[in-house]
Amino acid sequence: MALSNLRIAVSPLKRRSAALPLPVPAELPTVDAVIAREKPQEPVHALRPETLRKAARRFVAGFPGDVLYAVKCNADPRVLRALWDGGVRHFDCASPAEIALVRSMFGTGAHIAYMHPVRARAAIREAYARHAVRDFVLDADEELDKLLAETKAKPGELTLVVRLALPKGGARYDLSGKFGADFDAAVALLRRARPLARELGISFHVGSQCVDPAAYARAIELADRVAGEAGVRVDLLDVGGGFPVTYPDIDVPPLGAFFAEIEAAHANAAHLRHTKLWAEPGRALVAGGGSVIVQVQARRANMLYLNDGIYGSLSDAGYPGFRFPVRCLRASDAPIRDFEFFGPTCDSADRMAGPFPLPADIAEGDWIEIGQLGAYGAALRTAFNGFERAHLVEVADAPMLATPGLDD
Ligand SMILES: *Cc1c(COP(=O)(O)O)cnc(C)c1O
Predict the structure, then answer these.
(1) Beta bridge partners of 200
(2) Of ligand 1's atoms, which has the minimum distance to the CA of residue 210?
(3) pTM
(4) 6, CA 20 to 30 Å: which among 29, 162, 178, 308?
(5) Separation CA 175–CA 162 (nearest Å)
(6) Is 346 known to be catalytic?
(7) What are the C-alpha distances in Å from 141 to residues 94, 137, 235, 264?
(8) Residue 179 C-alpha to ligand 1 middle, in angstroms?
(9) What would the pLDDT profile of 85-95 be if each residue is shown by its tens digit?
(10) Beta pairing partners, 236
(11) Cβ neighbour number for residue 311 with a 10 Å cutoff
């Protein structure tokens, strides 16, 4: 069904005759209203623009530097628009498609940094020449060679950010295995890049869904030792993403505790205290802003067979074992019991152990809303086994779980 049908229409005639001179904002329906009307047999993605705007405002107001949205988390244009409306003007892009999308939506008013440290040569040329990207991350000499060869940039033209590898930390997703220069390599890269760079930076990523604010302080201390050893001026410290959100089994410290820890560590960093700061949040900005409504296709004991699964929006409920908040859309007085989910494909890995607490009388045909899926949900969907259909609606609901500092 067309998206526009889901908005409660405000007729232009009515608006003109109203006493208020201000335009009436289009009112969004609730999840319950959408499902009652549509009775969808395919998954529905419910986007909460107000939640996204609010998270963006909170992050931008609280973080002591520039906030770059990590676009890979959810690149839906409606998500980007809501974050923009909430004040986000900087974007961490990792592919030519993400860069082209952000430029097409916001023009040169958007600051884009290309933060994937391994790129195709054609992707570098497209970013630099077509989309005027000047900020690039790198973690190896070869990538710097590639950047210089493909951009033919003059010394002092590019912002070069050296990505530092971190030891394994306290995050749910460890991101230390793939990217990042070790201590000595980072020192050498900083020295080599300094005379070439307009601005020289150091970045890291503590791992996604990092619940320990001290992990940022430890990473900043390491970055400071690298800068000291390199003995060159550093202009920029990028503390990456990783800021956590609430899940049913995980309470997280308030966002402000992370900002305070970062500010204190930055102020104490002998070689970096005068740099500007960047952050690259993904999950924290958008997780609460999206949910998925699925339908039960079969029930066998405590096993629920759903029309979405790990090859759809529920990838993180599979092997990483995230327990997302769930609710049954039908009112029920039955006691709550634990269920396990199975997705629609024929792959036996398409299984989500949960457990997910739902009314004991849940049955075929019931709809379940699964929350905190604005990040790494719809963005990870595949067409495997023919199950790629879903549609997106914008709704007025609050997030299913509040994250302190973002939603309260
Ligand atoms: C994925 C990613 C992010 C966003 O991480 P979150 O944990 O979602 O905040 C930020 N920076 C880089 C380089 C990334 O790859």
Answers:
(1) 160
(2) 7
(3) 0.92
(4) 308
(5) 16
(6) yes
(7) 19, 12, 20, 32
(8) 12
(9) 999 999 999 99
(10) 201, 276
(11) 22
pLDDT band at 272 (very low <50, low <70, confident <90, very high): very high
If you search the block for the tokens 């109203």, which residue do you land on? 18
Signed CA dihedral, 146, 149, 152, 157: sign only: positive
Q: For ligand 1, what atom is nearest to the CA of residue 280?
A: 10
Task: Among 95, 208, 211, 315, name the best residue to mutate to test ligand 1's pocket (greatest count of ligand atoms within 8 A of Cβ).
Answer: 208
Q: Ligand 1 pocket: which of 63, 66, 69, 73 to mutate (most atoms <8 Å of CB)?
A: 73
| Whether the predicted pLDDT of 17 surpasses 80 | no
**Which residues have CB under 8 Å from 244's CB, separation 6+?**
172, 209, 210, 211, 250, 252, 283, 284, 403
Token duo for residue 6: 């889901």
For residue 25, cis peptide bond before it (omega within 30 degrees of 0): no
Mean pLDDT of 22-35: 82
Which pLDDT tens digit goes with each residue over 227-236? 999 999 999 9
- The yes-or-no verdict on residue 9 having pLDDT over 90 is no
Instruction: Judge contact between 10 and 16, C-beta under 8 A.
Output: no
Q: How many C-beta atoms surround the C-beta of residue 126 within 10 A?
A: 17
Report how far residue 185's alpha carbon sits from residue 216's, in angstroms, rounded to the nearest whole number.
21
Reported as a single tens digit per residue, the pLDDT across 38-63 is 999 999 999 999 999 999 999 999 99
Q: What pLDDT is stored for residue 250 in this prediction?
A: 93
Q: Please choose, from the candidates 135, 43, 17, 41, the residue with its C-alpha nearest in 3D space to the C-alpha of residue 388.
A: 43
Residues 140-153 as b/e (b if ≥16 CB within 10 A, e otherwise) read: beebbebbbebbeb
Q: Which residues are within 8 A (CB) of 76 and not within 5 positions of it... i.e. 6 or more apart? A: 47, 378, 379, 392
Residue 75, CA distances (Å) to 72, 198, 207, 339 in order: 6, 29, 20, 31
What is the percent of the chain with per-residue pLDDT over 70, rounded to a whole number?
Answer: 92
pLDDT at 175: 62
Residue nearest to atom 13 of ligand 1 (CA): 115
Inter-residue contact 220 to 272 (CB < 8 Å):
yes
Burial of 168 per CB tally in 10 Å (0-12, 13-18, 19+) = exposed
Cβ contact 312:328 at 8 Å: no
Distance CA 117, CA 145 (A): 12
Question: Residue 51 Cα, ligand 1 centroid: separation in angstroms?
Answer: 20
